[in-house]
Predict the 3D structure of the following.
Amino acid sequence: MSARTNLAGASAFVVLAAAALAAPAWFVSLATIAFANALVVLGLIVLWRAGLVPFGQALYYCVGAYTVALLARWVGITDAFVMLAVSGLIAGLVAYVVGFLLARYREIFFAMLSLALSMILYGVLVKTETLGSTDGFGVATPTFAGYAPHREALGLALYWLVLAVGALCAFAVSTYFRTTAGALAIPIRDNEIRIEFLGLSVNDLIHLKLVIAGVVGGLGGALAAMSIGHVDPNMSYWTTSGGFVFVTILAGASSVAAAFVGSLVFEIVRTVAVDLLPGFWQMILGSVLLLTILFLPEGLGSVFARLRGAPDRGAP
Amino acid sequence: MTAILSVRKLEKTFGSVVAARDISLDIPAQQTVGIIGANGAGKTTFINMITGYLRPSLGTIWFEDRDITGRSSRQITRLGISRSFQVAQIFSSLTVMENICAAAAIARGPRGALAHAWRPLLSADTVGEARAAAELFQIGAYRDIRAATLPQGVRKLLDIAMAVVGWPRLLLLDEPTSGISIEEKFSLMDVVMTALKSRNITVLFVEHDMEIVSRFADRVLAFYDGTVIADGAPAQALADTRVRTFISGTRTVPEAVAGAG
Amino acid sequence: MLTAFAIVADGLVYAAYLFLVAVGLTLIFGVMKILNVTHGSFYAFGAYGAATAAGIYFDRSLPDALGFLFMILFAMGIGLILGLILERGILRLVYGKDEVVIVLVTYAVFLILEDVITLIWGPRSYGAYQPMVAAGSIDVGRLTLSNYDIGLVIIAAALALATFLALKRTRFGRLLTVVIYDRETAAAFGVNVTLVYTVTFVIGAMLGTLGGAVMAPKISVTLGIGVEVIVLAFAVVAIGGMGSIEGALVGALIVGLARAAAVHLMPQIELFIIYGVMALVLAFRPFGLFTRAEPRKI
């Protein structure tokens, strides 16, 4: 089973990597953003399986993005690989510290507290003149171990980078799901008390999940910052987090692939909707969300799972 | 015979309500102790204190010459005390095998959550242990069934199997036969007790059926109003006047005594 | 000394605002266990409604005081209708689902209502400053206080008192207290929980629009005002303890004074301090000042 999944993932990766050569530049850049955001959704799925819905995952997204922007601005580092590593590390560190508070909470409290924490960052960024306040500031063009592409070549390089990081994270997370700590996600939802009486701390398990979600969220933010070329406090605003939650609900938490497919579909629909029906984007978003919750509580992914006859294990 | 569990002057109050008071007793290793008492007599409070779910208001609990009073349920489990629950506490969206494997992985693995992020749930070690436990409790036939759909008796057995897979030395069973039909009770207890005996586990079990108590217990603790009112061999304890009055209901309650309670 | 007085004065005004927006949120949570993100929309609808009412009223040289009343009633009327539609039309369908799922439902409705606001009122901003101007100001020592702000504090205090008395003294209030305390038992004793839910949600919605209406004269009524309110109100409610009216009051005072202190002493931490205070309180009292977690029975 796992070998087959890995094979499917690897072939999807190759196809997606090759497709960029044929696709128009605007689509490549759309997919780049979509897959960068998918990393945040991947982190959401890790928490989601344990019944936790973070309404403030944009915190790590924003931390990752600002780390990239500041590395170039203050330290002069523009190497994409170094920037990524540092972003993931710092976002993970933030998640680790914040986790001491967050891991004690469940359900709504967890959702809203994580939201409040992301709003703290938003508040700080808005008030900090040196970081560009509400306008944010531009991100230097990344280089790739000495290679410094421009325009289309840069777009392609970024796309491939996002794809590679995405594939690595997807592989890591799906491996994690098969470990004891990972497999205990659904049991946390089922029965926390039993886990405690078996001798393992549920809070520690959740803390670990928070850090994993934080790291991938930070990587997603870092990649998004590189491809957008700009960062601003809105990256930590609660509506940004709401978007990630939206994609997760739509995609379901049944597999890591759902994060990428869901995120891509979301970006495409948004581009089309904003183009055709300006002023109705939030209404479409809200209606789809409402209908999904009412009629497809386990997300779109569950439809495929159901077709295959697998048990639904998606939403909380 | 040295005591595996020693309890001294145990007391638990919730505000002005006294849920347990003045409980002092010793349990020798490998004894099978039946706990009886009406609802609200303090049986589950007693078990909850020993397993660390409730912190005693007063008194001490010693397990194998170690003071475990007020430790967390997690630490206590690690020291070798396990429990099952009145309502089976299982992971309903996992299969029977996955349930026991999760229990085995935690029990046999390190205590940190991080260390469990490297080991697969279904490793050779955990699967082997889980198979053995499933066979021991005769639920092997249900291995790949999701726990949510299990019949009540199997749920109970799974709950106990998950507690036993960590090789505890003391096991507390909170009403192992609750929710089980009268016809099934004896066979279920037979399976459980045989399994536990084969692993030399000291057992405390809460039970309302006096026949089951006399059949399986070496010793009976009778709880009434938060404390132990009779402690002895089943025949002796069940014959106690107060036990017959307040618990087994084989004697009508004299008015004067009822008023005092 | 002057600063201290200014901090207290500003803090009380801000606390009044926070209490007005938080009380409906905490009431709905207490009774229905719903964290209602739509509360932000209620606030926005209240503010827009009040602005519209002000537009209708104040060109006609009628008495100013009645105009303010008209604005409030107009806004609360919108709250009544909106609350009824949402509770009967949508929330009813999801009762019994996971609490987090219901939050997402209210989030979805919030998103929809954001665009509904644009549809009704368009993208331009509105002012409803007339009552604020008409109320004038008063000099206290070297400090000038707006009478409208003083009125706001009085309204909030009156509302707190009224809510408190309503819960303690009226039949429906006692019914609510019972439902808050133990839903299942209340239902078992024949309390019509469905009706209690509808009434509570509608009251909560009206309180939300009231908050928007009384704030409308002080702000520029524009798109997106509901977004901020919901997060702010949540912070207040989380500090006090979700579902607790006293908690909302105390939470509002703490946040209000802390923010005023920040504004006067360290303006760069103004936005940060609200959530900072919240994180600090929760670190020591995980479920707020006025509520405790109940251990699960096993």
